Amino acid sequence: MIFNFKKKQAEQLKASFGKLKDESYNFELIEKYFRNKEHTETLQVLSDKTCKDLDFEEMFMFLDRTHSKPGQQYLYNKLRAIPNKPINVDLDEKLIHLFTDDSDFRVEVQTQLEKLKGREAYFVSSLFQEAHLEQPKWFFILRLLSFTSVLSLVLLPFNAQMFFVLIGVFIVNICFHLWNKKNLSSYSDSIPQLMVLKRVANNLLHNEEIKKINPLLSESIKILDQVRNRMLFFKLESKIEGDFQVIFWSFLELFKILFILEPLLLFGVLKRLDCRRKEIEKVFIFVGRIDVLLSIASLRKGGDCCIPKIDEENSRMKACEIYHPLIVNCVRNDIEVNDKSILLTGSNMSGKTSLIRAIGINVLTGLTMNTCFAKSMMIPRICIYSAIRISDDLMNDRSYYFEEVLTIKNMIDKSCNGKASLFLLDEIFKGTNTVERISAGKAVLSALAKNNNRVFVSTHDIELTDLLEKEYELYHFSELVSDKSVDFDYKLKEGKLKNRNAIRILEINDFPELVIKEAMALAEELDRTRL
User: Taking every annotated instance into account, which residue ranges of this chain make up the domain DNA mismatch repair proteins mutS family (predicted)?
Assistant: First the structure.
């Protein structure tokens, strides 16, 4: 029976490699490790605003192929925190290739990680990131009550009246026992899962290649073993509740109440774990990193990816057949950025915003996962900021334009901080009138393109192409308008857009002839005025 189960599990794990996961996502718990972690040594922590612009949650669900909850949390943090230098890239790539080429070894590791796939494993990080419960000042009373219970039992054969003392203490202990239940429930998930995490890490250390990730991890595990016996109580408690062994549980409860064991053990364990936060985090990171490397191996197996060349010295960017991983059958494009930034023109739905998002996503995954969705890609080590998806903030009485102003003001501040940045903008200042939009847009885009920064911006304002041609390379998307249809090829083309089809699209959608004629006449008049 056990052999058949393991064989079936191995077959399922092999079959799932390279494929998307089929599960629900609780981002409140997935983000838990990231939100509580310090990121002082990173180049940039990706903002919530930029995450929203890049459809980060949808992208994460596509990228995530992890098998454990700590691995999932570690991957989320990895994608949100851009490192300021390469970290163990050679070792990571060696393990990724090992996972890809050796299916038996991969399944062995996956089987270990699957032990941490339950929801409870999300809470392990709280043991080293969050403050623990502190003993109340009157906690010494519990020790006295426990000692009194022991003494009463010892003296009971010699003095029958000790029975009444024992009953009195038992009744008092019930109150403290019930008071502690809420405290206990806060750790009923995390502490048992810490034991599983420790055991999984210890098993993974048996492989010499994996051990290279942290050769000294066994020392951290030994330190945690010092509180193993006390933590076994939480494992027993969790198992009993899960198996509904009511009779045994009832006797155990009476025993724990009599000697007030639960609060004594709980606060004793928490005191010891509080001194071992670094060791817990090291074990968490070790398991999480292995799971993420497996996830990257699976991602590369299932998709058309490349390992980028990261230029640490310059802000050059070159992509061959780059695509957006979330768009099915996405059209691929080539683009090269040297001394100038990129200004995109084209009609709605032609592909401008999708390309801008594809650039942002690929730079992000390239810098964090050493993986890009292209045939080949060269990217700089760079921060990422965006102004793509902006909306009114009605709760704070802010208009669309005001929200956009605040977002772009933050970009201008970041453009001068000494770090090379990638700025992604879609239809700059579209919340205001034409004259001021073009004037302000030109000034802002000129400012952002300085200081070794790179800008990808889309616009419908053809005037900006003339004003910015010395600072920006011009590209465009175009469409083919026939008698009754509009067809997009989504191919990036050099130069500015010359054909204007907006009014023609109104015409093929059966707008009144009077409206079309008036629009055509006004467009021609405006063109003459600009000339």
Answer: 339-524
